[in-house]
Amino acid sequence: MASVANIGGVVLHSSFLGNKLKFKPLSLSIPLKKQSNTRIIYGEMLRFAHDLFVGVGVGLPCTVMECGDIIYRSTLPKSNGITVTVPGVILALGTLSYLWVTPGVAPGFFDMFVLAFVERLFRPTYKKDDIVLGKKLGEGSFGAVYRVSLARKPSSKGGDLVLKRATEYGAVEIWMNERVRRACANSCADFLYGFLESSSKKGAEYWLLWRFEGEATLADLMQSREFPYNVEALILQDIQDLPKGLDRENRIIQTIMRQLLFALDGLHSTGIVHRDIKPQNIIFSEGSRAFKIIDLGAAADLRVGINYIPKEFLLDPRYAAPEQYIMSTQTPSAPSAPVATALSPVLWQLNLPDRFDIYSVGLIFLQMAFPGLRSDSSLIQFNRQLKRCDYDLVSWRQTVESRAGPELRKGFELLDLDGGIGWELLTSMIRFKARQRISAKTALAHPYFDREGLLALSFIQNLKLQFFRATKQDYSEAANWVVQLMAKSGTEQDGGFTEAQLQELREVEPKKKSSAQRNALASALRLQRKIIRTLNESIDDLSRKRKSLWWSRWIPRGMK
Ligand SMILES: Nc1ncnc2c1ncn2[C@@H]1O[C@H](COP(=O)(O)OP(=O)(O)OP(=O)(O)O)[C@@H](O)[C@H]1O
Ligand SMILES: [Mg+2]
């Protein structure tokens, strides 16, 4: 039943409309040619919206029922309500949950177009001349960090702010800190302002300002022989009246772990993966009596694809997960922002990029439990041993436990407290496959953090534990299959697998003996892939340079 609608002189044909829709003509001040274009666009949009609504069964009753002409309808009781149908409701709910699921397309739009805008109107701004440099706190490859104070408000001698003068990754760090301040301010150091300063001698630099949170990072605190007792006074209101020993240390480590996971859950829920979680990047905030995350220069915002460059990584090898990449390396580069936004929930579920950070937190947990693994050299040695055990913590334990010295034994004893609940959590964080690692949110609900009845697990706690064990089972095969299928379909010119994936396959099934012929073929294939990859990377690099900094035009320029 075709029908006709007239919009501003545009006639719409619709097979669903039972009568003519009449609209007032659009403003005539638009030039004729433009007007007709605009009309066609409006017309198309209206038709699309109408068909969509009718198609899913949500719409005005008559359009849904297709009940014929106006005379018949006029005899029916008049209703302006919306008819709700089961498929319509399912589709609406599905769309809504898609838009809200991690990393959150809908909250992302609200954040970018409303919150960011409003915040910009009200927040205080700073410029170079406002800042008085103090002591240098650190210097990395991409910038230096100073303790500073404000010229107009000379505060305590040391300065109550921190300034980072960054070159390469400064823009990314400003973006991430602003996102965090709006979405999960308690997760990271309190960020004040960031701007591009082009008058410095070294060329353009990004200046970032935070509130000074405190003197010590978790790395500093862990280096002390007193750890974890030196943290106890800082984070727990009252000193526990337990005697010094494993139980008391366990309580303190529990609290630190809970704070780390809470901070990380905040970041992950808003679609940010840190990628450089390590004790040096965790600061103790004296004001909040809690640990906070710093140094977001390597972070990736998966909501809009910022700083997500699959083939590039700036990892600290001591704390990096074995996969090294947070996303499938088959994705050549971040899609454009609207596409990345629309696809972000799918990409997130397929890759689970947050589990990269979970591995690093797992290593921090390990270091806190085992005093013998707190030094760099011992951590590197542990990483080597774990790799030899195919990243299976249980077999690592079997290998080392029989000949363990007192420091290692102490760690196992601590984790074995309360029916081995700490060991259970640790093994669910340090796993080869990202998909089998626990998420920050689920970890926070782990029975390890239950304070009551830890020594004798109650029936409910046991049930919870069984549930966690069951959910840890390997359910990754189906997901892997989908990822591989998607990966191969788009990358024929890459020859199917990347070097990283070949490596992964090699590590999963390393035992097969291969003939000399097969080896030669494999080498030839590898060489071919290497050449193609290098070419692709150069092209990626070019296109990335063109589009990767589209968002940095929002960063304010420093004023004189
Ligand atoms: N908000 C803050 N409050 C107190 N100290 C801070 C703050 N931010 C950074 N710091 C100190 O500055 C150091 C360096 O900061 P950050 O990790 O962000 O920079 P970086 O580029 O990684 O430099 P580095 O390579 O020296 O770590 C930290 O280890 C910490 O001691
Ligand atoms: Mg750092």
From TrEMBL:
Catalytic activity: L-seryl-[protein] + ATP = O-phospho-L-seryl-[protein] + ADP + H(+); L-threonyl-[protein] + ATP = O-phospho-L-threonyl-[protein] + ADP + H(+)
Annotated GO CC locations: chloroplast thylakoid; thylakoid membrane
Molecular functions per Gene Ontology: ATP binding; protein serine/threonine kinase activity
Binding site for ATP: 164
EC number of the protein: 2.7.11.1
The keyword Nucleotide-binding appears for this protein: yes
Residues in Protein kinase domain copies: 131-449
Keyword line: ATP-binding, Chloroplast, Kinase, Nucleotide-binding, Plastid, Serine/threonine-protein kinase, Thylakoid, Transferase, Transit peptide
GO biological process: circadian rhythm; photosynthetic acclimation; regulation of photosynthesis, light reaction
Keyword Protein biosynthesis assigned: no
A Pfam family recorded for this sequence: Pkinase
Cellular localization per UniProt: Plastid, Chloroplast thylakoid
Name of this chain's protein: non-specific serine/threonine protein kinase
